[in-house]
Amino acid sequence: MQERIMDLLVVVENEDVTVELIQVNEDLNNAILGYERFTRNQQRLLEQNRNLNEATNTSNEPSAPSCDLLDLSPILPTPMSNGEALNTVNAQLSALKLFMKKLMFTTTKELKITVTAKVKKKKNPPAYAT
Question: Can you cite a GO biological process for this protein (predicted)?
């Protein structure tokens, strides 16, 4: 109960006024409880918004330094003559052919090693201790 109302209840002798004071006290207590609930909910809402903003801010930041990221911006072609363009394309194709030959050689070599190891394993089964 509110302190002032308690003081009044002791002094007042009229029953109607006493009932009215008790009703006012209940209303005040309900209003105070409602306000406390409101402030708790407001604090919880502010914390959720703050957490959401922090999550949004961290997701906008890159996960790696920009020097480690690839530059995917479109490259504007530089004007060149047909001969220069043909030489550039031929150079790129020859580099690609060399890369593919090296890749095929490596893959074939690895495949032969793997097959040879499996064949040897089948010919010589593991000895079990008796």
Answer: signal transduction
* Nearby residues of 2 by Cβ (< 8 Å), 6 or more positions away: 25, 28, 29
Report in angstroms the alpha-carbon separations of 46 from 36, 38, 40, 53, 93. Answer: 15, 12, 10, 10, 60
Query: What is the residue range of 38's domain?
Result: 1-59
Say what the pTM is: 0.39
Q: Taking the chain, what is the end-to-end CA distance rounded to the nearest angstrom?
A: 90
The string of pLDDT tens digits covering residues 30-89 is: 999 999 999 999 999 999 998 888 877 665 555 556 666 666 777 766 666 777 777 888
Number of domains in the chain: 1
- Rounded CA-CA distance 104/98 in Å is 10
Q: Is residue 90 part of a domain?
A: no
